[in-house]
Design a protein that fits this description.
The chain is of the alpha/beta class and 241 residues long. 44% of the residues lie in helices and 16% in strands. The relative contact order is 0.14.
């Protein structure tokens, strides 16, 4: 699968149930607009978020930003079914653990592409590793479908599963991040991740700490990361420049 020329450094999370918030992406100019069906959407708004995708992609899609949809692992079949349509470059799949899960997602996307007149094989899959089993199977997951174009590190869920990182101790996380970078580079996929420090991760990270996390991520071999807040986009673009 041929990747677009867009560098895809900053992947800005946008709650798909709230069109007003989604359209703010234009102020921050991310490389990738990620319409979210996962954490940023309350359970009661999930169906609304799915139904919004078709309209949102027409508004968000542009030459400046690729549009992806982050699905929820627990509702991935309904989410992926709604997300496979013209104008959406691909699907961000959080928490895969077995290659069969990726292969089955590929089959669903293939069927939906045919049903909706989407060019066959053009919908990409981005895998975000979030568990010990997922990291153990990193290479096998990435090889489970030719649609997989990126392999990333989901630090929030990983921390919840493995426990917080002790202050000043990064050996475990460096090992897991390095494992994902090696798998991605070996298979010619984009590695996504940043080296967040304790007390300054994701949504609570300042612009300065975000830029530092991105720069250190780049030194490890990563080429972009998800942005938990809009204000992180410029810092991520700077760090991965």
């Amino acid at each position: 699968m041929t990747q677009a020329m867009n560098p895809r450094r900053s992947w800005m999370i946008l709650p798909a149930h709230d069109p007003a918030v989604v359209m703010r992406y234009q102020e921050f100019k991310p490389d990738v607009a990620v319409l979210d069906l996962e954490y940023s959407v309350p359970p009661r708004a999930k169906e609304l978020a799915r139904s919004n995708l078709k309209t949102l992609v027409k508004s968000v899609g542009s030459d400046q930003a690729d549009v992806f949809v982050r699905i929820d692992r627990d509702t991935r079949w309904a989410d992926a079914g709604a997300a496979t349509q013209r104008g959406i470059k691909g699907i961000v799949f959080p928490g895969p653990e077995e290659p069969d899960e990726v292969a089955e997602l590929d089959e669903l996307i293939t069927a939906k592409e045919k049903e909706r007149g989407v060019d066959p094989g053009t919908t990409e899959i981005v895998l975000m590793l979030e568990s010990a089993k997922g990291f153990w199977n990193a290479a096998a997951l990435a090889m489970a479908s030719p649609r997989v174009t990126a392999l990333g590190v989901g630090r929030i869920d990983l921390t919840m599963r493995l426990g917080p990182v002790p202050q000043g101790e990064f050996r475990l996380y460096r090992f897991l991040m390095t494992r994902s970078v090696i798998a991605a580079r070996m298979l010619a996929k984009q590695p996504l991740g940043a080296l967040w420090r304790p007390g300054s991760r994701g949504g609570v990270a300042s612009k300065e700490m975000t830029a530092k996390a991105a720069r250190e991520g780049k030194l490890m071999g990563f080429a972009g990361c998800l942005c938990a807040t809009p204000e992180q986009v410029a810092a991520v673009n700077e760090g991965f420049a």
